[in-house]
Amino acid sequence: MTRATDLRLHFAELVVFHIVSFLFQVAKRLERFKTTIFTQMSMLAIKHGAINLGQGFPNFDGPEFVKEAAIQAIKDGKNQYARGYGVPDLNAAVTARFKIDTGLVVDPEKEVTVTSGCTEAIAATILGLINPGDEVILFAPFYDSYEATLSMAGAKIKCVKLRPPDFSVPIAELKSTISKNTRAILINTPHNPTGKMFTRDELNVIASLCIENDVLVFTDEVYDKLAFEMDHISMASLPGMYERTVTMNSLGKTFSLTGWKIGWAIAPPHLTWGVRQAHSFLTFATSTPMQYAAATALQTPDSYYEELKRDYMAKKTILVEGLKAVGFTVFPSSGTYFVVVDHTPFGLESDVAFCEYLIKEVGVVAIPTSVFYLNPEDGKNLVRFTFCKDEGTLRSAVERMKDKLLRK
Ligand SMILES: Cc1ncc(COP(=O)(O)O)c(C=O)c1O
């Protein structure tokens, strides 16, 4: 494509964007959020026949026994509205798993709320517990729904940056960000997009700051079973923290069933109250047969998780070694199915420009990380790849990059 054609296309895209902005209306609280980058990149991927190592969904299916349990539940007539906070079997299964994972014994009836994926657990937690004007601290880069949901709640977002190469928590910066208006800190471990896992020392410091300043913790642990280089630690399990923590999780990543959207929030009764108030008016209840199947999934023995980890370790090795061979600087990832790399050796001016080039000229999709920051400039050198794809797909993507991506 010539530069003139490229410019004309760019201009046409701009015109379309302005027409769309004029015709389609959106409330002020959401107007600065555009189509999510994941949708944009996936659409571009389809257009160019690119291999999608962008959006974090597996290209393989979840386990047969869980799918069979869903079919059985449908056949058994478990098809009407479920109890708002979850079918009893699932609340009990979530509680049992939480006890194995953290040692904490919680009441399935009073402390577990089943939601439509972790996305709804995040929304119900924020909308149910945050008042307009409350300050909430995020660690950037952060999962995109946090900012949009906090904006819907009218919260003030305060950001603390995790920086490469190890993305460790800058404690002094965190301390100076906490104020008398801080209501909550949102953490995500293992962390999307970097793969960082919060260490016990980091969690201990955050915990003591929260206790000292009477701050809540909302913790997104959807990748807890994809912890490769160290053990996952739940904030709720630290001394004095359960009382001020909402732990959010879901079935999607662990059981390779991201389309089912079954999630949950675990919190003491005084915090569950707010979560359930919001949940009642967001979705009220989530899919009944899938909840029964989720209960079956969560009762699976630990060998399932061990095998999952083994499979993902092999995939991770293919991608990480491949990316290094291509010439990227690859930052260490301890958990999740993501790795973040520095794309600057290839000479493109930004992460978005690099990802567009990668799709159009190389045929591989990655996600620009600038969308994970309040200030997009902060992510302009980094892009994220996922390895939740079969090994053949990962190898083909690496081969394409080796063939067509040249260091400048
Ligand atoms: C950190 C994080 N939290 C939450 C979610 C959403 O989870 P769910 O699909 O269960 O809504 C994702 C999905 O990619 C994620 O990466």
From TrEMBL:
Q: Which residues form the Aminotransferase class I/classII large domain?
A: 51-400
| Keyword Repeat (UniProt) | no
Q: Tell me the keywords, alphabetical order.
A: Aminotransferase, Membrane, Pyridoxal phosphate, Transferase, Transmembrane, Transmembrane helix
Cofactor(s) the protein requires to work? pyridoxal 5'-phosphate
GO MF assignments: transaminase activity
Q: TM segments?
A: 7-27
* Keyword Magnesium applies: no
Superkingdom of the source species = Eukaryota
Name this protein carries in UniProt: Aminotransferase class I/classII large domain-containing protein
Q: Which organism is it from?
A: Ilex paraguariensis
